[in-house]
Design brief:
Number of domains: 3
Helix content: 40-55%
Distance between the termini: 34 Å
Order of helices and strands: EHEHHHHHHHHEEHHHEEEHEEEH
CATH superfamily of the largest domain: Winged helix-like DNA-binding domain superfamily/Winged helix DNA-binding domain
Number of strands: 10
CATH architecture of the largest domain: Orthogonal Bundle
Strand content: 5-15%
CATH class of the largest domain: Mainly Alpha
Strand order of the largest sheet: 5-6-7-8-10-9
Shape: globular
């Protein structure tokens, strides 16, 4: 049985608990879904602890929308439009109108249900400011000053946006205690369509000319990776790496081994693109690393560092 928006009928959870307890070997009889994670998790943890498996469902992935990921134009159109299912059900949907309505509903309904935000217009400004920081290391001091809010308020609002799947915070890699490492997370938006809307990018030409095009491309690859990993059984972690000397690796996927990835919005390759990975690999005894770009050919920039098309990161996940 599938029960959608379970947060609106929390009284059902006690009955579901009784039925589950009476038939503990009959797994998977109930699928409970909800769009407001705070209310859903409150009811679930109180009533069904130890009786439920929890999956976080992100917007659609490239695998689910089924396009030719080697066709750059189709890829650009997809992450410009974003990955919310409605766009792939209603092909005539106006993107700007949908995103403006989505944000208004999110702020007016969901945020009010979660917490007290005294100034909703300032909260909207806060989201807009975060969009300009996508792909960057989170600087609470700068963001709070620009938005004219306190740092505790900034932290609280970030937590709300993260918990409601508007943003994703990628944690830093901290395995090497000998180096002084950046400890703040990097900021990404869960959906690139929403990110582009907030940045005022509404067509492919603007996307390709935008100063943020590299950050949006990086955002897309990070979130595609997170989506793929989140639906796998078994724990696999994602990080970025940056020292205070500004040595940075965009993505590290870690399970039984660590694999570093550098992300470049480019078709022309150079050995310099792999220099950070090369240093990281030597310091951490890494067997192989990858530079992900728009170039469709496989090219070794160093003996153990391969430049390849960005989609290969999704295939490589299955090998971890």
């Amino acid at each position: 049985m599938i029960i959608d928006e379970i947060q609106y009928v929390p009284e059902l959870l006690s009955y579901i608990k009784m039925d589950v307890d009476a038939n503990r070997q009959d797994y998977g009889r109930y699928v409970l879904t909800g769009s407001q994670i705070f209310q859903v998790m409150q009811g679930v943890t109180e009533s069904l602890a130890g009786r439920i498996a929890i999956f976080n469902l992100y917007p659609l992935s490239f695998e689910e929308i089924d396009i030719d990921i080697f066709d750059d134009n189709l890829v650009f159109q997809s992450y410009l439009k974003g990955f919310y299912p409605e766009f792939y059900v209603n092909l005539k949907l106006d993107m700007s109108f949908w995103f403006s309505s989505y944000l208004a509903t999110y702020i007016e309904r969901d945020i009010r249900n979660i917490t007290i935000v005294s100034d909703l217009s300032k909260f909207q400004t806060f989201i807009n400011i975060l969009a300009t920081r996508a792909g960057q290391i989170l600087n609470l001091s700068n963001i709070s000053k620009e938005c004219a809010i306190s740092q505790p308020t900034c932290k609280s609002w970030l937590s709300i946006l993260e918990s409601t799947y508007i943003i994703y915070l990628l944690k830093p890699f901290h395995n090497n205690r000998k180096k002084r490492l950046i400890k703040s997370p990097k900021l990404y938006f869960v959906d690139t369509g929403l990110l582009c809307y907030l940045l005022g990018i509404d067509n492919t030409n603007r996307l390709l000319k935008a100063s943020e095009r590299g950050a949006i491309f990086e955002n897309m690859i990070i979130m595609e990776t997170i989506k793929r990993l989140s639906y796998r059984l078994g724990r696999t972690n994602c990080y970025f790496y940056r020292t205070q000397a500004a040595l940075e690796v965009d993505l590290i996927i870690e399970k039984t081994k660590s694999v570093p990835y550098e992300i470049k919005f480019a078709k022309t390759l150079s050995k310099d693109m792999a220099s950070s990975i090369n240093i990281f690999a030597k310091d951490h005894d890494i067997e192989k690393g990858y530079v992900l770009s728009l170039n469709k050919d496989d090219t070794h920039l160093y003996r153990n560092i391969l430049a390849t098309h960005w989609s290969k990161v999704l295939q490589g996940i299955e090998e971890l």
